[in-house]
Design brief:
2 copies of one chain form a homodimer. With 343 residues, chain A is of the alpha/beta class. Chain A has 3 domains: 44 residues, no CATH class; 127 residues, Rossmann fold (3-Layer(aba) Sandwich), CATH 3.40.50; 131 residues, Response regulator (Rossmann fold), CATH 3.40.50.2300. Helices cover 45% and strands 16% of the residues of chain A. In chain A, the strands form 2 sheets. Chain A has a 6-stranded parallel β-sheet, with helices on both faces. A 6-stranded mixed β-sheet of chain A has the order 7-6-8-9-10-12, with helices on both faces. The longest helix of chain A has 16 residues. Chain A is elongated, with a radius of gyration of 26 Å. At the A-B interface, α4, α5, β2, α6 and α11 of A face α4, α5, β2, α6 and α11 of B. Chain A binds a DNA duplex (16 and 16 nucleotides) through α2 and α4.
Chain lengths: 343, 343
Amino acid sequence: MTKRSRKTIKDVAAAAGVSIGTASRALNRTGRVSEATVIRVTDAARKLGYQPDAIAQSLRLKSTKVVGMLVTDLSNPFFASVIRAAEKRLQQAGYALLVGNTDNEGTREKFLIDLFQRRRVDGLIVGPCETENPEMLEALDSGDLPVIGYDRDFGEGQSGLHVDHRRAAYEATRHLLNLGHERIALLSSSSLLSPGRERIAGHAEALAERGIALNQALIRAHKSSMEFVASEALSLMSLRPAPTAFLCLGTRMLAGTLQGLQQNGLKVPGDVSVLAVGDTDLARLYTPAISCVTWDLDLVGQMLAELMLRRLGDDQGEPQRIMIPTQFIDRQSCGAPGQCSGP
Amino acid sequence: MTKRSRKTIKDVAAAAGVSIGTASRALNRTGRVSEATVIRVTDAARKLGYQPDAIAQSLRLKSTKVVGMLVTDLSNPFFASVIRAAEKRLQQAGYALLVGNTDNEGTREKFLIDLFQRRRVDGLIVGPCETENPEMLEALDSGDLPVIGYDRDFGEGQSGLHVDHRRAAYEATRHLLNLGHERIALLSSSSLLSPGRERIAGHAEALAERGIALNQALIRAHKSSMEFVASEALSLMSLRPAPTAFLCLGTRMLAGTLQGLQQNGLKVPGDVSVLAVGDTDLARLYTPAISCVTWDLDLVGQMLAELMLRRLGDDQGEPQRIMIPTQFIDRQSCGAPGQCSGP
DNA sequence: ATGAAAGCGCTAACAC
DNA sequence: GTGTTAGCGCTTTCAT
């Protein structure tokens, strides 16, 4: 197979015996071209294996048909599924999705936004990041590209999609309260982020309805590894009186908690009830299966894409905000508070 | 904030009082420019918030600094981690990673390869896909872009990285044999793919060493949902004599198997031993913890990127192939075969 | 050391 | 209907 160089529209035009202008119009079916030449040109294109150069098109049309997306960690299944769904929807509309990991670092976030802007993405979907960078916001409105916030707010001018984390935590807490729990330990990702903040608010709200004050000693909100969460869980269990239930706000939190509990021979739900926000294989298949509040990750990705496409459309739709509802799934990890706890 | 349009190198040149050629040379520190003008130009650039247009650069330089990657499903944690690591390494070298999901469909794979070629990616990392598409291979060598196969072979001309699935399955099987198991059920993703094929080969090899023939009745190799795997597992357990151990080649397989077993009240490892290829949270935290063969996903991503960068470098390195080793992790899910099995 | 100009591949405005 | 041409923003000869 001869290593033929890539064919350009010029080659196609030559092969079809027309000018490049006509070739372009024929290929794109724009402007007036005779049906005969359309056929001749498309034929030639096919025969040559011509593929239009998206880069040249982008330069000319001032649109790359690429949207960027920033998440803390693409390998977090919660983001991965959302990305997947968003990519799918965007692709249907002819857009590609370029993903970047911020690693929860403001500097990386700023770096990526600059990078994506240099690459002239048509829009940006931006997820939460623990360490906000003021320069980032600046970088963002220096370009006039559409931004969709995902569990994050960029002001009135931009669209946003939010999972109803407040309600998720509220319902989870109510469930535990109804079972009779009053000392509920809370493990959350950083309270600085929107999701963390909202969750704690929802938790507090449910507590308040029963006249129970938020006990700071029972709350641990850090960005944290699984191992760290495990030791946090144990430290919480060594309080006296010990908590009778764990509310794990995030999938990492659940894994860590279970590990810690297991390590100390504590039984779920016998010794302590466990409730998670966010569903995973682990929650589903653990023994006992873990009750949780969950939401539709595919829907999130899809709507994120939808929101973006709406902003990208000719109609120049107004910025919108969407709230994604959550569902409670009752499984076997919660019971009434036991009388004795501790090893 | 006035919606100033994006600054071009022309603006910078004007502001610095030089020609655009000089501005370009100053910015890129290429060719001869006086130190004074370099300063003047970079100053102007900074003041204007100038960001070079990567699209225009790509068109001119014939390199997009983007590499594409094709996987069946980015939300599969096995791919997600690899992607993450690859992206990180590539970014260090100034490349972006554009990911596409093939959904295990040959037509989608072909579509994406075309798409990526149109976008003029500098290279392509291509993972396994169940339904190969002959057109795809054609599309691939019509362009002369570097391809790195990931658990997949593209012939002598291209680099490749392979996880040692054969050895993984071999070791897992040996472990079970040493425990005394002779009837080992095998659940694998499609045997058409390289990983599936290799795994079954490794399994057979270990069996052969003990003079045990491969029993086709004990092998189930389909692309399959978790629910389907669960029923497969149960159907295997209803064989007489029933298998005494399950070898789950793939993370989906493990989840499905555990679900099926659980559903029928079968205990691990009391009633049946379980061994997985591929480590997950589920394997780690399940009770009992699941023994498995695993490998370093970060390393895979890193080496994939490395292989690509080597091909992309000026030195035009020769195509290389790399084998990633696997490790056996013994946990609590395997025991000697029990005497009685079945409900 | 710097400016002028060509050209990457494409589309769109303008002639005919 | 079709050909010609300008120009997207940049880098890189080639003069000077």
